[in-house]
């Protein structure tokens, strides 16, 4: 398979899947061309470099250039030895190549050096990189030897049977390698026209990455699938993201189950997920101990296996250490406290995603959880919202979700982390719209629960949902004029509203509240009915009402205001339908 298109994401995908990577040596792995450097050492630079350039830009054949350069150089064995002593291989390496080769070896990728230069110069380079000499393909110098001592004395040409001495040599080496090893994907990295050839012939490399950190050759740039100017770019692409979950409630566990399926399956992630757990005692022992032993959170999501690769950790610092993808999922009343504890702990490259539905109320005005995380932690923060009742997702039922992102690259990484065949994720460039919808629907779900508790039917609930959607959209737009109207048609909008008004904890607790006509508070009922899980809607109704009051908007949001009035006992439960006909 040849991947086309400069910088195409498929090239990087091929790169990540490579089972063997073949590097050119001169001006790729090394900052210089070894024969030019030897020429400099022997004072013959000008003549030799002219022939090097001709070969690299394709204006003469490789064989002819090599013959001419060696004729001019005419090196004795002691010349070669003396040169190698003055130019230790490690000092000739391009920046970042050792780290790259190390990262490839760590992934179990075979690394080869295929050079149009000579083994005498390439072997020390391979040694410096930890590449075995059997993985070096290069030309071989021939020397006449002293009749008496048998020691090499004088240069006598080179071994023309080595494929690398002529055009088409590099693809030939790769073809032979593929006959011996069943590599599915082979990538060639180099700076010259002979490297480019490696990927242009059948059974050669699957993809050619041009390295322009030393020289940028227009012909090579034109033909390359991708051109990079430093090796760090390629090393970063190999990096496996390390995931940490902050929170271990019902949704955190269901979402961790989705993520654990993906981190076990995809090369882009480290398999193990750290999950920070707010430690408590469950049936006489630490909850983390129970989770790590059974892979199930028996208190918050019983009966659902998170996957053996999720490790529960009570210490926050240990849990986040080294993670570059941080999933924030605690009930919103704990968000600020946790965020404060996180300051200074996150990896400098970490990206955060919040699954928390709720907001923070401060004297200077409300703040979304994503904004709080972004500001306090100084990291990009996406949100994942949607019609996602945890227990259903835990059972593997089909669901959709929405990721609102500020940085598209992070949005995509998080989609890869969560999306499964039964959990379909859509990306929207609208963090505020998605998060406001996810937060405010909890108030509407409480209203729907009141309606159910009063014994009202589907038409009444549909009216509550309609009014709820309208108020969600209006308040979101007033608070964040940049929100996109179409966001409310995604899973985070209308779908979450419907799911939460028919299922979910807010509806359930509110139903009992209405049946009992407010005999027990919502908080007391939540404690009785939810087994430690937290109710978000009542607190959010109070928080939103405080915003409406400050802004003088109470009359514009009759459903939100009425739900709050009922919760605090200022209004009878029956007033839940008072918005109807008021428009
Ligand atoms: N459960 C669900 O179906 C869904 C929940 N969400 C949202 O996810 C967020 C998290 O909810 P769940 O995972 O369902 O949690 P939960 O309500 O099931 O569990 C409560 C969690 O709070 C933790 N906790 C208790 N005291 C704490 C403290 N002082 N500091 C930090 N954590 C503490 C408990 O350990 C437990 O993990 C909420 O904002 C919720 O609205 C979103 C979609 C679905
Ligand atoms: O957010 C949810 C579903 O998307 C869960 O809602 P509840 O908190 O009402 O269970």
Automatic annotation (TrEMBL):
<dbReference type="InterPro" id="IPR036412">
    <property type="entry name" value="HAD-like_sf"/>
</dbReference>
<dbReference type="GO" id="GO:0042803">
    <property type="term" value="F:protein homodimerization activity"/>
</dbReference>
<dbReference type="GO" id="GO:0005975">
    <property type="term" value="P:carbohydrate metabolic process"/>
</dbReference>
<dbReference type="InterPro" id="IPR017751">
    <property type="entry name" value="G3P_DH_NAD-dep_euk"/>
</dbReference>
<keyword id="KW-0520">NAD</keyword>
<dbReference type="Pfam" id="PF00702">
    <property type="entry name" value="Hydrolase"/>
</dbReference>
<dbReference type="Pfam" id="PF07479">
    <property type="entry name" value="NAD_Gly3P_dh_C"/>
</dbReference>
<keyword id="KW-0560">Oxidoreductase</keyword>
<dbReference type="InterPro" id="IPR006168">
    <property type="entry name" value="G3P_DH_NAD-dep"/>
</dbReference>
<protein>
    <recommendedName>
        <fullName>Glycerol-3-phosphate dehydrogenase [NAD(+)]</fullName>
        <ecNumber>1.1.1.8</ecNumber>
    </recommendedName>
</protein>
<dbReference type="GO" id="GO:0046168">
    <property type="term" value="P:glycerol-3-phosphate catabolic process"/>
</dbReference>
<dbReference type="GO" id="GO:0005829">
    <property type="term" value="C:cytosol"/>
</dbReference>
<feature type="domain" description="Glycerol-3-phosphate dehydrogenase NAD-dependent N-terminal">
    <location>
        <begin position="242"/>
        <end position="407"/>
    </location>
</feature>
<dbReference type="InterPro" id="IPR011128">
    <property type="entry name" value="G3P_DH_NAD-dep_N"/>
</dbReference>
<dbReference type="GO" id="GO:0051287">
    <property type="term" value="F:NAD binding"/>
</dbReference>
<dbReference type="InterPro" id="IPR013328">
    <property type="entry name" value="6PGD_dom2"/>
</dbReference>
<dbReference type="InterPro" id="IPR023214">
    <property type="entry name" value="HAD_sf"/>
</dbReference>
<feature type="domain" description="Glycerol-3-phosphate dehydrogenase NAD-dependent C-terminal">
    <location>
        <begin position="430"/>
        <end position="576"/>
    </location>
</feature>
<dbReference type="InterPro" id="IPR006109">
    <property type="entry name" value="G3P_DH_NAD-dep_C"/>
</dbReference>
<comment type="similarity">
    <text>Belongs to the NAD-dependent glycerol-3-phosphate dehydrogenase family.</text>
</comment>
<dbReference type="GO" id="GO:0141152">
    <property type="term" value="F:glycerol-3-phosphate dehydrogenase (NAD+) activity"/>
</dbReference>
<dbReference type="InterPro" id="IPR008927">
    <property type="entry name" value="6-PGluconate_DH-like_C_sf"/>
</dbReference>
<dbReference type="InterPro" id="IPR036291">
    <property type="entry name" value="NAD(P)-bd_dom_sf"/>
</dbReference>
<dbReference type="Pfam" id="PF01210">
    <property type="entry name" value="NAD_Gly3P_dh_N"/>
</dbReference>
């Amino acid at each position: 398979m040849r991947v086309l298109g400069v910088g195409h994401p498929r090239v990087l995908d091929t790169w990540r899947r490579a089972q063997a990577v073949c590097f050119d040596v001169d001006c790729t792995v090394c900052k210089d061309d070894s024969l030019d450097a030897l020429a400099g050492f022997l004072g013959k630079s000008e003549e030799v470099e002219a022939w090097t350039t001709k070969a690299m830009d394709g204006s003469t054949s490789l064989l002819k250039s090599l013959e001419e350069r060696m004729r001019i150089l005419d090196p004795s064995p002691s010349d070669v030895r003396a040169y190698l002593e003055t130019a230790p291989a490690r000092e000739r390496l391009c920046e970042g190549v050792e780290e790259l080769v190390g990262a490839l070896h760590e992934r179990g990728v075979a690394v080869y050096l295929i050079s149009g230069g000579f083994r005498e110069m390439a072997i020390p380079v391979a040694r410096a990189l930890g590449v075995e000499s059997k993985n070096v393909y290069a030309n071989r110098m021939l020397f006449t030897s002293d009749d008496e001592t048998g020691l090499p004395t004088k240069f006598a040409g080179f071994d023309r049977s080595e494929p690398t001495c002529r055009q088409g040599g590099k693809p030939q080496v790769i073809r032979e390698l593929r006959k011996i090893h069943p590599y599915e994907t082979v990538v060639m990295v180099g700076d010259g026209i002979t490297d480019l050839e490696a990927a242009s012939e059948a059974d050669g490399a699957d993809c050619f990455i041009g390295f322009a950190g030393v020289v940028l050759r227009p012909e090579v740039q034109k033909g390359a699938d991708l051109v990079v100017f430093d090796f760090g770019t390629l090393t970063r692409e190999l990096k496996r993201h390390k995931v940490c979950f902050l929170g271990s409630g019902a949704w955190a566990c269901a979402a961790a189950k989705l993520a654990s399926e993906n981190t076990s399956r995809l090369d882009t992630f480290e398999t193990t997920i750290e999950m920070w757990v707010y430690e408590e005692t469950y049936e006489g022992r630490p909850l983390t101990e129970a989770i790590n032993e059974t892979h199930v959170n028996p208190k918050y999501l019983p009966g659902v296996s998170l996957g053996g690769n999720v490790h529960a950790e009570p210490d926050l610092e240990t849990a986040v250490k080294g993670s570059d993808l941080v999933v924030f999922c605690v009930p919103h009343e704990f968000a600020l406290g946790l965020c404060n504890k996180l300051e200074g702990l996150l990896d400098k490259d970490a990206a955060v995603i919040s699954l928390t539905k709720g907001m923070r109320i401060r004297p200077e005005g409300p703040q979304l959880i994503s904004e709080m995380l972004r500001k306090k932690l100084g990291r990009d923060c996406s949100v994942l919202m949607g019609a996602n009742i945890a227990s259903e997702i835990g059972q593997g039922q089909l669901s959709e979700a929405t990721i609102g992102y500020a940085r598209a690259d992070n949005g995509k990484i998080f989609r890869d982390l969560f999306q499964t065949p039964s959990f379909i994720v859509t990306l929207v460039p609208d963090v505020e719209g998605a998060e406001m919808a996810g937060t405010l629907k909890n108030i509407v779900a409480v209203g729907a629960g009141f309606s159910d508790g009063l014994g009202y039917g589907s038409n009444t609930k549909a009216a509550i949902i309609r009014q709820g959607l309208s108020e969600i959209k209006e308040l979101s737009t007033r608070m964040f004029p940049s929100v996109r109207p179409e966001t409310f048609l995604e899973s985070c909008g209308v779908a979450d509203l419907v799911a939460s008004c028919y299922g979910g904890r807010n509806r359930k607790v509110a139903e009992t509240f209405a049946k009992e006509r407010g005999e027990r508070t919502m908080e007391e009922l939540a404690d009785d009915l939810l087994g430690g899980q937290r109710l978000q809607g009542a607190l959010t109704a109070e928080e939103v009402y405080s915003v409406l009051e400050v802004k003088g908007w109470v009359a514009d949001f009759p459903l939100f205001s009425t739900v709050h009035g009922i919760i605090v006992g200022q209004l009878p439960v029956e007033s839940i339908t008072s918005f109807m006909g008021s428009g």
